[in-house]
Amino acid sequence: MADLPNCPQCNSEYTYEDGSLLVCPECGYEWTLELGTDSGEENRIIRDANGNVLNDGDSVTVIKDLKVKGTSSVVKIGTKVKNIRLVDGDHDIDCKIDGFGAMKLKSEFVKKI
Description:
By secondary structure, the chain is mainly beta. It has one helix at about 35, and strands at about 15-20, 20-25, 30, 60, 65, 75, 80, 85, 95, 100-105, 110. The chain is elongated, with a radius of gyration of 21 Å. About 10% of the residues are buried. This is Alkylphosphonate utilization protein.
């Protein structure tokens, strides 16, 4: 018997193939085999302002003065940020900036070093 993935809706282990679809008999959810094997994390590509692909651990430079919400301070253009981490959401870079601490940035306002 083929080793089929669990249902993405209810995590049932009793999935079966019906033509090109996988079906869960418990909740009735149907999906394709490609959807069932991809976690979505691998296909996520985040690019900087110049179109370069960003990865966890990269170093980037801020290309625009960014106001820090809740304070009167500004992250200046040219600020270097080391060891970024990519996350889901609108602000897709999680990092620590010297003098500011932990911050989230949008990838459209940075360029890869």
